[in-house]
């Protein structure tokens, strides 16, 4: 407890829950990062030119799943629909194991796997943070979310290590079974949290338990809530501009890696090493810096820091469009995203209703985010078709980055207003 208190502002009765939350996120991201390098390799194996089509397929899949997820949340209790969704994705990994374990892998299988991994990542991570916003109070989210994110980062470091260590020995298919096994373990932690009594909620004013019951509203409740709320629309714009800003970097990086490395195993290892470096830096920030940044600089500046830094990075990309710059930019983006902006972005949902924490948040984190990725893929393709070079692409990115910064400023102020209003109501 003494060691942990030096890293984050934790109270005695929160200690076990904090460790459980870290373990839960560890299992989720470890499972994902075992297969992430395989997904990235599938993208290049299918041809970088086809990435916009694959992103579009991901958006379609997410839009189709949105009402299905809404139906599940209104029919089953919290513990049930979280567990069912987790087992649903784990079972698909077993199916893909048999589809991958063949001499000549059909292109349809590799394309489907790329889409599936994107859907899996969007849904499972979004559900985790929705659940954490349900488990912890608004005050606790500001103190504990950065450290909980560090648990996930530790899993994101272990995942690539597993892949790098084993892919050359056992090949790709068995890694899918390893990922499925790790993911399934998280179901036990879901059940633990539903039973946990949060005595530290709201400065000891009253206990808070997870409402283990189905959500109210319709299956399209998340979508209708977004259109009724300027605040939720602001989060949509923030996420959309985030996706538009970074996809240009990712596609350009994939082009340069494709031109530099011809061997699929070498490309998979490179992606895994990038994951390892980025996630190690993320873990350092989350353990020692993130909570202090939020505490001393405030929420609004914390939310603005990464959009502003990435916009500056786009200028460097325009001046030096080479592979090393792209890799450094990707590492910076992921460190800033997962170590600083991700915890801050999840806190945005601590001031909305329980239904919006699951339904609206899930739609924003999945369909809206992937719509931004798909749209930027097509914009990138159009810009390249017009004969524009890397500098022109970076110029468009700078414009998007500036708009992203403006939304971040507005959203930070709106969050603080909602927080003050809720504190006044509680008092």
Set out the fold topology.
Blueprint: H1 2-7, H2 15-45, H3 51-75, H4 78-100, H5 107-135, H6 138-170, H7 173-195, H8 221-228, H9 230-260, H10 264-288, H11 290-297, H12 299-319, H13 323-347, H14 354-385, H15 390-426
The major beta sheet can be summarized as: none
Q: Approximately what portion of the residues adopt beta-strand conformation?
A: under 5%
Number of beta strands: 0
Termini separation comes to 31 Å
- Helices, by number, come to 15
How much helix, percentage-wise, in residues?
A: over 70%
String of helices and strands: HHHHHHHHHHHHHHH
The unreliable regions are 202-207
Shape: globular
Q: Could you walk me through the main structural features you see in this protein, from its secondary elements to its overall organization?
A:
The protein is mainly α. It contains 15 helices and no strands. It has helices at residues 2-7, 15-45, 51-75, 78-100, 107-135, 138-170, 173-195, 221-228, 230-260, 264-288, 290-297, 299-319, 323-347, 354-385, 390-426. The longest helix is centred in the last third of the chain and has 37 residues, at 390-426. The model is unreliable at 202-207 (pLDDT under 50).
């Amino acid at each position: 407890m003494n060691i942990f208190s030096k890293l984050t502002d934790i109270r005695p009765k929160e200690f076990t829950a904090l460790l459980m939350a870290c373990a839960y996120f560890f299992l989720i991201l470890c499972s994902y990062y075992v297969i992430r390098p395989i997904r990235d390799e599938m993208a290049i194996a299918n041809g970088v030119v086809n990435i916009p089509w694959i992103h579009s397929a991901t958006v379609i899949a997410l839009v189709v799943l949105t009402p299905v997820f809404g139906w599940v949340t209104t029919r089953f209790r919290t513990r049930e629909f979280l567990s069912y969704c987790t087992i649903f994705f784990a079972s698909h990994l077993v199916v893909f194991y048999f589809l991958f374990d063949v001499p000549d892998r059909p292109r349809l299988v590799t394309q489907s796997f790329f889409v599936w991994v994107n859907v899996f990542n969007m849904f499972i991570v979004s559900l985790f943070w929705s659940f954490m916003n349900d488990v912890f109070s608004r005050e606790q989210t500001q103190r504990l979310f950065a450290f909980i994110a560090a648990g996930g980062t530790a899993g994101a470091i272990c995942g690539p290590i597993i892949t790098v260590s084993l892919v050359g020995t056992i090949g790709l298919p068995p890694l899918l079974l390893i990922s499925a096994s790790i993911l399934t373990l998280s179901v036990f932690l879901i059940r633990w949290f539903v039973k946990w009594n949060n005595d530290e909620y709201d400065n000891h004013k009253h206990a808070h338990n997870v409402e283990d019951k189905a959500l109210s509203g319709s299956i399209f409740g998340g979508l209708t809530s977004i259109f009724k709320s300027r605040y939720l629309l602001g989060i949509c714009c923030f996420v959309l501009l985030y996706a538009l800003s970074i996809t240009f970097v990712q596609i350009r990086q994939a082009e340069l890696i494709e031109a530099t490395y011809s061997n699929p195993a070498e490309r998979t290892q490179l992606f895994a090493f990038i994951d390892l470096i980025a996630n190690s830096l993320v873990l350092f920030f989350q353990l020692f810096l993130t909570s202090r940044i939020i505490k001393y600089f405030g929420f609004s500046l914390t939310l603005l820091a990464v959009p502003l830094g990435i916009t500056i990075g786009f200028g460097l990309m325009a001046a030096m469009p080479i592979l090393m710059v792209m890799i450094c930019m990707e590492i910076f983006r992921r460190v800033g995203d997962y170590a600083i902006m991700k915890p801050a972005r999840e806190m945005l949902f601590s001031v909305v209703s329980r239904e919006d924490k699951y339904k609206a948040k899930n739609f924003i984190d999945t369909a809206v985010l992937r719509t931004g990725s798909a749209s930027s893929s097509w914009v990138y393709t159009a810009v390249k078709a017009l004969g524009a070079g890397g500098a022109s692409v970076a110029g468009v990115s700078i414009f998007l980055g500036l708009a992203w910064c403006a939304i971040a400023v507005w959203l930070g102020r709106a969050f603080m207003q909602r927080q003050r209003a809720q504190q006044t109501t509680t008092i």
